[in-house]
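Hi L.,

As promised, Beta-phosphoglucomutase:
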Amino acid sequence: MDWSKYDAALFDLDGVITPTAEVHMRAWAQMFNDFLTARGVSEPYTDADYHRYVDGKPRYDGVRSFLASRDIELPEGTPDDPSDAETISGLGNRKNDVFSQVLRDEGVQAYPGSVALVAALKEKGVRRAIVSSSRNAPAVLEAAGMTDEFELIVHGGVAAEQGLAGKPAPDTYEYAADQLGVPHGRSVVLEDALSGVEAGAAGDFGLVVGVNRGAGADALREHGADIVVDDLEELLS
């Protein structure tokens, strides 16, 4: 890959820089399956549901999307709802409690190939930003020791403050490029989620890289990835 064509790399976090997508998957599965069991629903939540309805989206959007797929209606609630509230916000907060506990108990290490690519881009002078739907992104980066490797972190809290639509809309990626002062066409989006590559494809970016951590290479291409890799080290020239 010829990085001289690009001035910025805009990375999703979970599943791209760190393996925390797996932690998110476990947390979502625990929360949703406990919820479905309590309601007497026999069809469980699966990894396929995660990739189809939840992955890459802002937390409450993921809850809303999955529940709609099962024709389950709940009141919206507010972000301040307690975790045991039977609301969209309550379920989202319940999932976040599980995720935060796993992060505290187990910690996280970045993918070696991702660390290598970020270091190489830093040396080349390519600008680097994290663009994550998760409000936990700063805590995850700190736990992985990667905070100082990125000039900008656009997480779910920033998106809410700025009134930016979440993925699959391109707004958060466009905002990151604008904050770095880099034209969209000179920016690369790197994503493992179907909603994320859709976001990259919806913007006028120079390249959208799909990182196959389980969504499937064909699905990533169908949703807008220009190229697909299994590890970011493949993008080192």
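DSSP finds ten helices and six strands in the chain.

Thanks again for sending the construct details.

K.
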